[in-house]
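Rather than argue in generalities, we have chosen a single entry, letters for residues, whole numbers for local backbone shapes, without further comment.
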Amino acid sequence: MSTHRLSRRSFITNTFCVAASAVIGLPALDALAQTQYGGPQQPRGRGQLTGGFQRQFRVPAMSMAVSKNGRFVYDRAGGMADHQHMMQAQLDSLFRIASLSKPITAVAIFSLIEQGKLRLTDKVFGPSGVLGLQYGKPPFMQYVADITVDHLLCHTSGGWPADASDPMLHNNGWDQGKLISHTIANVPLTSVPGAQFIYSNFGYCILGRVIEQITGQPYASWVEANILAPCGITTMQIGANHERDRAATEVVYIGQYSEDPYKINVLRMDSTQGWIASATQLVQFLNHVAGAPGIPAILKPETVRMMTTPVSVIPAGSPLYARGWMIAEDGSWWHNGSLPGSTSLMVRTPDGACWAALCNTRTEPHDEMDSALINMMGDLASSFSG
């Protein structure tokens, strides 16, 4: 079967060029076309593409993988994973994936829905909510008791945006319970749930607690056993906060422009921005979500359609967003991520082509690097025939 070639130009034009600033803040199309990897030129050699990107953005280490029809056609890692100890990145090197954690959490939620343990319409807080009174008692602040699981998945809960006020970036000494209790009691929602798209890292932190409540297990343990293990993934885990505590094969993160990758509470970000992985593992995950030739699907086709159907309240000029996934006009699912010291991307096209890329740094402001990674990986993936 021939593989649909999602050209770099159409993919960028239809998907990434006018993104919501709360999500990734990409430049407009005319500005993006002037970056090193924009414009209509033919893809250069693969080594030139990846090496040029690393040099341009001073990326010490990268992990990249591409699959077509469920089969890996590219799987590479390179660069300096740990400069102090002169350790090179390997295929099993783990990187922080930042907001690529959200699709993993969404798949976990939909797995519980398929099992009949949860509904999109279930309320989250209050006496009849999934989380009950764990994080506060009535009377709640306006609209809090109206939030449903679906609102959190779609970023339509009504507030707690991923901007300078993001609860996930403050009070680093607090655990998830204290952070949630304080936030819902003191930070008001700005709109009726369901009425407005407001990208929220905090909302996906709450979804992690929903998974824990329904399963009776820690979020990471349940996801590892029930979502990642069926994909053949055994070493993905939640990242540590400090360099000294990083996983055995985890890279060292390099901050640029005075950013410190080790001053954020990654452990607390588990279900929203906390996973570490290799690009190989992310492509394995992408192949298993809806299946591929010879690869069983984690979710049923009707569930996948529900998960990847865009919500109707996306602002004009912003990328389409569904439930844990951004959606291209051609139907591709994707997400990207960014934290101090981390840049990430993963994509699945309608015909099942999948690719992912991870870096152990980011620029600041990071929109140019985000754009260039999208362009470079689009070029790389398009260089392989079906």
Notes: The chain has two domains: 8-100+233-382, 108-215. The mean pLDDT is 89. DSSP finds twelve helices and eleven strands in the chain. The longest helix spans residues 367-382.
